[in-house]
TrEMBL record:
DUF418 domain span: 245-404
Lineage: Bacteria, Pseudomonadati, Bacteroidota, Bacteroidia, Bacteroidales
InterPro entries for the chain: Bact_Transport_Assoc, DUF418
Cytoplasm keyword on record: no
Protein name (database record): DUF418 domain-containing protein
Highest taxon in the source lineage: Bacteria
The keyword Flavoprotein appears for this protein: no
Transmembrane residue ranges: 23-45, 65-91, 111-137, 149-168, 263-283, 295-317, 338-357, 363-385
UniProt keyword annotations, A-Z: Membrane, Transmembrane, Transmembrane helix
Length: 413
């Protein structure tokens, strides 16, 4: 998510241009916390029999469907696009200053990989930063391609998961089987079973027990990346984002208004019906097969995510002074800090070493809590950025990238 995580390297000077990128970051952060908190709350791990015993369980079934319809996949798509935009901004800004853009970029990626590895192994198994950093290191390979070839490569990468799933289904191949076997080995070693899996973190009385779960959880995460062919998807989105950044499309919204309307219309027209099918397929464990599910994902998630982005951009063009953009932009300015912060808050709320609310709250309430966490972060971000130039992790990331000290607290006249 590095792409989106800072605006300190942005070449954009006008407030409108800065606001659109920051507002999209903040918007994506809201979607990310709503998508992630069902797992933090342990609801995702619970059996259907156990979730049926929770208050408002009947309503939760509709909430689950709506989450797959409106949230799942769309917001990490936005983050991935913003990552590619950030790469183009780094290249341009460092080149303008006469520096070595590749050296700066790779240092940023290595620092991000380190942060992601710490997050994955010691805080939450659902980390995306490490994957972003590792795949981000491949982006320079594409920087000299023409726009047409760039977009063609991106489209191929986004469609490859459909082909892989078809081949795996036809040959009955399980690519993640070795990882699953290793994960089960660690579960056996620590005493994590099917019966206590959903309650392990809620019942954990020490961080040692949490860490044991995180070890096998990191392997589950790798399994998810393999089964979901996530690396092809993310890299394809990075490349599209790089194209957007290279063309400065984010800075030419008024000029591109007609194009944005076409993207919005096509995204809604194609994305909505396929997303209906995607949500149904996910909730019902892929009744039409894995390859068909992957194809539905391709025609549902991506178009709707682009509709979200273009819709936000069109709204900004029509109402540039709308206060909501600035409200979303504030937490977006310190997205790395807020992303990691969401994980810490999730632990404190739901795990046994915190308040221990996990596996006892219905999905609807979890979504409300997630939205409340985002609102709290927006308030804290506003106060913090009143006194400081960067979020705390953005500040550390910047210093490690450039190897020098930057002032955190704003100067007061």
């Amino acid at each position: 998510m590095e792409h989106t995580l800072t605006n300190d390297l942005s070449p954009v000077k006008s407030s409108e241009r800065v606001v659109i990128l920051d507002a999209l970051r903040g918007f994506a952060l809201l979607g990310i916390v709503i998508a992630n908190f069902p797992e933090f709350s342990l609801y995702t791990f619970m059996s259907a029999e156990d979730t049926a015993l929770l208050p408002f369980s009947a309503a939760d079934r509709y909430v689950r469907y709506l989450l797959y319809f409106f949230i799942d996949g769309k917001f990490y798509t936005i983050f991935s696009l913003l990552f590619g935009i950030g790469f183009s901004i780094i290249l341009e800004n460092v080149a303008k200053r006469g520096g070595n853009a590749m050296r700066v970029f790779y240092r940023r990626m290595f620092v991000l990989a380190f942060i992601g590895a710490l997050h994955l192994m010691f805080i939450w198994s659902g980390d995306i930063l490490l994957l972003y950093a590792l795949l981000g290191m491949l982006l320079p390979l594409f920087r000299k391609l023409s726009d047409r070839i760039l977009l063609t490569v991106a489209a191929v990468l986004l469609f490859i998961p459909v082909v892989i799933d078809f081949l795996c289904e036809a040959t009955r191949t399980d690519l993640s089987a070795p990882v699953v076997q290793m994960q089960r080995m660690y579960c056996t070693r620590f005493g994590i079973t099917d019966d206590n899996f959903a309650y392990w973190l809620r019942d954990a009385s020490s961080y040692r027990e949490v860490f044991q779960f995180l070890i096998q959880g990191a392997l589950v995460r790798i399994q998810e990346f393999i089964d979901g062919n996530r690396y092809f998807k993310v890299l394809g989105l990075f490349i599209i984002g790089f194209y957007i950044g290279r063309q400065h499309l984010y800075a030419r919204l008024e000029e591109k208004r007609i194009g944005l309307k076409k993207i919005f219309g096509a995204g809604i027209l194609i994305g909505l019906p396929f997303t209906v099918l995607y949500a149904y397929s996910t909730v019902n464990s892929h009744p039409w097969g894995l390859a068909m599910h992957s194809l539905i994902y391709f025609f549902g998630v991506y178009p709707l995510a682009f509709a979200y982005i273009s819709g936000v951009c069109l709204l900004l063009v029509k109402h540039p002074g709308l206060a909501v953009f600035h409200q979303f932009a504030v937490p977006g300015r310190m997205a790395l800090t807020n992303y990691i912060g969401q994980s810490v808050i999730g632990i404190l709320l739901f795990y046994g070493i915190g308040l221990g609310f996990g596996a006892g709250i219905g999905l609807g309430l979890v979504v409300l809590i997630a939205a409340g966490v985002w609102m709290l972060q927006a308030i804290i971000s506003r106060v913090w950025l009143h006194y400081c130039q960067f979020g705390i992790l953005e500040w550390m990331w910047r210093m490690l990238t450039y190897g020098k000290t930057f002032r955190l607290v704003k100067k007061r006249s």
